[in-house]
Amino acid sequence: MLLNPFERRLVSGGLRRQVVRHWDMPRFLKLSGDCAGQRILEIGCGRGFGIEAAYELLHAKVVHAFDPDDAMVSLARQSMTRSGYFKNSPPARIWQGSATGIPAPDADYDVVLGLQVLHHIQDWRAAVAEIARVLRPGGRVMLSESLIGFIDHPILGRWMDHPADDRFTQRQLLEELEQCGFRILGTKGRGVWMTWVVGERLP
Questions:
Q1: Domain map (residue ranges) of the chain
Q2: Tens digits of per-residue pLDDT, 154-194?
């Protein structure tokens, strides 16, 4: 499901960039450890704050990313052009696409990064299975997610557009990851509203 205009403004502003850099990434690094020199895929990249953080804070060798929204893909490409990441060797790559059908070979990435993405996807379980497919054995998935307690909140939830069916608690998300072949390395949470999860792809 694409973002509504309010959500698009929210994830495109400077506050979102600060959340990614100073809230999400420190948690992932604490739970996962060093990611330097790795191939990272970001699902639902928005305007590119996660790509930027993957290079600058996770020290990725290369970042590939996609978003279902053409407008967001265009903004991300503009941002990466200004940052010079398309001139890297190998270069960054950004495309329009879906997390339920990732155009990549099996075991192609070392890390898959998802920042507030899965809860927007109608068939989020299929997306988890795709993440597992494109990760190499020993690779890491790093997810920050809004949980059903936030999505169903009578005030906060009305500003956001999310699929209504089969939203998840932290426990349901962890169980799905485990069923798809992940070992949970660690979690951080904010009650029933938010979670950060890092999992390792088992052989």
A1: 5-201
A2: 455 554 555 556 578 899 999 999 999 999 999 998 666 68
Question: Distance of CA 68 to CAs 59, 73, 99, 119, 196, Å?
Answer: 25, 8, 9, 14, 22
CATH class of 5-201: alpha beta
CA distances 80 to 32, 108, 109, 172, Å, are 25, 22, 20, 35
In the DSSP assignment, the letter for residue 24 is: I
Alpha-carbon distances of 106 from 127, 130, 144, rounded to whole Å: 14, 9, 23
**Which amino acid does the sequence have at 200?**
E
Q: Which residues are registered as beta bridge partners of 187?
A: 197
Three-state SS at 184: strand
Q: Which amino acid is at 113?
A: L
User: Which DSSP category does 156 fall into?
Assistant: G
Span 48-70, pLDDT tens digits: 999 999 999 999 999 999 999 99
